[in-house]
Design brief:
This protein is an all-alpha fold. It contains eight helices and no strands.
């Protein structure tokens, strides 16, 4: 029978996997099916034609952020014996990021309300579509701000994994590099917007490899069964 720390690790792995799935669906898949860059009319048509898909993306993003909170609290229980200070920093960075994404989803809801005739009803269709694009861009840019914290939380997470003794040090290093890559991506994109796609390609691999490695290790290997977690239940 697995010991307490093993159970916590597996729970963290399940939550991390759920976070990855819901985030990928809401932030990547739905956006790719609906949003047409610099084309307000086409984007608006896609939103109306795939309204349920668009709504499901909003719900998925809200679920992912709720799961994120439970994930980081579970990781806190796993790592508090390694360094309580780093574990608190890790939790704080995630807690800061969650309301930012909630605000970004409010912009997405507002864009749909315009198309459904629930607000700005006196505007002609062309202007409504421009407002829809504005709110969708605000949704995207607000989420982009959250990416800073998605990177920063990986740094103490990586340090904890590296120091833990029950997770391979290489995963800790990958997590730290992934966190730094996220932050570099945001800063470089703000300073050099014309090179956004190039920067994303160069920096995107590190966080993906790091987080997938952590998910798989927590799910499949867990931690050493001889370890104990203080005050775990």
């Amino acid at each position: 029978m697995p010991d307490t720390k093993q159970k916590i690790a597996r729970k963290a792995g399940i939550l991390y996997l759920l976070l990855a799935i819901t985030s990928a669906y809401g932030l990547m898949y739905v956006s790719s099916q609906v949003y047409v860059p610099n084309d307000a009319a086409a984007t608006s048509q896609n939103m109306m034609a795939h309204e349920f898909l668009f709504r499901s993306g909003i719900v998925s993003n809200l679920i992912s952020q709720t799961v994120f909170i439970f994930l980081v609290l579970t990781l806190y229980r796993l790592f508090e014996g390694v360094s309580k200070h780093l574990a608190i920093i890790m939790v704080a960075l995630v807690i800061v990021s969650v309301p930012i994404v909630f605000v970004s989803e409010a912009f997405a809801i507002a864009s749909l309300m315009i198309l459904k005739g629930e607000m700005m009803t006196t505007l002609p269709p062309e202007q409504q579509q421009e407002w829809v694009m504005l709110f969708l861009r605000l949704n995207s840019r607000t989420t982009f701000v959250a990416i800073v914290f998605w990177g920063l939380w990986l740094i103490p997470f990586g340090q904890l994994a590296y120091r833990s003794g029950f997770i391979p040090k290489v995963i800790g290093i990958l997590l730290i590099l992934g966190g730094v890559a996220y932050v570099i991506q945001v800063i470089a994109t703000i300073l050099f917007p014309d090179y956004r796609s190039i920067v994303s390609k160069l920096t995107g691999l590190f966080p993906t490899v790091a987080e997938l490695s952590a998910i798989l290790w927590l799910l499949i290997k867990g931690v050493k069964s001889t370890s104990e977690v203080p005050n775990a239940s």
